[in-house]
Design goal:
The chain contains ten helices and no strands. The chain is mainly α. The chain has a single domain, classed as Heme oxygenase-like (Heme Oxygenase, Chain A). The longest helix is centred in the N-terminal third of the chain and has 27 residues.
Length: about 230
């Protein structure tokens, strides 16, 4: 996750270094989650994939909501940040439709999509993100976007390749993962563009990093709960 843009602020550079450490902790934790361990160890099944999509769908749907709320909470002096976040929300708000199409292509039934509610981890993740997004000028949510977009940038291509080995490339059921593998680089670049802007004090940096760490923990919990559902 190396930035293409040189950060001018020493404080922003230090914040970025800490975010990278948080990301690597998160990546390590993901490897311990049962469904991800099966994916990485070649024990993943078609049922695992359908369950993964069912549980991710709720988080993807809610993603457009908290990002939109975040944008609306930035005041006029942060108009440049708000513009970037609004564009991000526009890019993300219908992603769940692609995921649903993958689920059907993978052998899932359409009625299952509406029957599956949020698991405990998704509930906690959504509640936290909406709470933070409702605060004035929620600069800390840059940390949340860093973690979630990092999944697409760093993990989606590898996960899609492994799923294709299980499902067969002819099924065309990994469009969602491939899309994020190809496009989340651009989203990460946008975060670099505003990092200097939002990270102006040590308190800002601490808040960004704390939110990133909380989101990593809750995202892992969301995936853990797939096996408990």
């Amino acid at each position: 996750m190396n930035g293409r843009k040189k950060l001018s602020s020493l404080l922003a550079q230090q914040c970025l270094q800490q975010l990278m450490r948080i990301w690597f902790e998160f990546e390590r934790d993901l490897g311990r989650v049962p469904i991800i361990a099966r994916l990485e160890n070649g024990q993943f099944t078609a049922d695992d994939y359908r369950n993964l999509l069912l549980h991710l769908r709720q988080q993807v749907i809610e993603g457009g909501r908290w990002i939109t709320r975040c944008a609306s909470s930035f005041e006029r002096e942060y108009v440049d940040v708000r513009n970037v976040v609004i564009q991000h929300a526009k890019d993300e708000h219908q992603d769940y439709r692609v995921l649903e199409a993958d689920f059907i292509a993978a052998g899932g039934q359409s009625e299952q999509l509406n029957q599956q509610g949020r698991n405990l981890g998704t509930e906690a993740l959504h509640a936290f993100l909406m709470y933070r997004a409702s605060k004035p000028n929620p600069v800390d949510l840059i940390g949340a976007m860093w973690m979630i977009e990092g999944l697409g940038q760093k993990m989606a291509a590898n996960w899609a390749e492994r799923v294709d080995e299980v499902m067969g490339t002819e099924t065309k059921c990994t469009t969602f993962m491939h899309y994020h593998a190809e496009n989340d680089d651009n989203h990460i670049d946008k975060l670099y563009e505003i990092m200097d802007r939002v990270c102006q004090t040590e308190q800002d940096a601490a808040a960004i990093c704390k939110t990133a760490r909380v989101v990593g923990r809750l995202y892992a919990l969301q995936l853990e709960e797939i096996d408990h559902d």
